[in-house]
Amino acid sequence: MAGKIRAASTLQEAQLLVDLLRAAGIECAIMNEHLQGGVGELPFTQVWPEIWIVDDTERERALAVIAEFERPVTGRGGGACDRCGEDNPPAFEICWKCGHALTRV
Ligand SMILES: [Zn+2]
């Protein structure tokens, strides 16, 4: 049975989380993706993209993967984005927030 993991505040964040879960071998999908254009007409929270996993028994693992990703990064990670200044985890080649390619030293 499929289950909702969480909502994301942006489609970009949702896509990132989905990529993360898929990389961990968890089948998942973004719901509400097609509603992004309707912000003016619907209550805002209803148009937030949602991450759903195909197999709800993977929920614990999916949440762990996301928690690991969202843990505050200490030390040198993927580094601050040149464009928006957001700090990125070590494994990331593009900024999770704005999609800008991270340059490495
Ligand atoms: Zn950025």
Describe this structure as you would to a colleague:
With 105 residues, the protein is an alpha+beta fold. 24% of the residues lie in helices and 16% in strands. It contains two helices and five strands, in the order βαββαββ. It has a three-stranded antiparallel beta sheet with strand order 1-3-2, covered by helices on one side. The protein is globular, with a radius of gyration of 15 Å. The protein starts with a strand and ends in a 17-residue tail after the last strand. The model has no long low-confidence stretch (mean pLDDT 81). Zinc ion (ZN) is lined by residues 81, 83-84, 86, 95, 97-98, 100.
Furnish the topology, listing elements before pairings.
Elements: E1 3-7, H1 11-23, E2 28-31, E3 50-53, H2 59-70, E4 79-80, E5 87-88
Antiparallel strand pairs: 1-3, 2-3, 4-5
The structure holds zinc ion.
Feature tags:
105 residues; alpha+beta; three-stranded antiparallel β-sheet; two-stranded antiparallel sheet; 2 helices; 16% strand; globular
Order of helices and strands: EHEEHEE
- Low-confidence regions: none
Mean pLDDT: 81
| Number of DSSP-assigned strands | 5
Proportion of strand residues? 15-25%
Distance between the termini: 44 Å
Shape: globular
State the major sheet: 3 strands, antiparallel
Which oligomeric form is depicted? Answer: single chain
- Counting DSSP H or I runs of 4 or more residues, the number of helices is 2
Helix residue percentage? 10-25%
Tell me the structural class. alpha+beta
Question: Whole-number radius of gyration?
Answer: 15 Å
The order of strands across the largest sheet is 1-3-2
Bound molecules: zinc ion
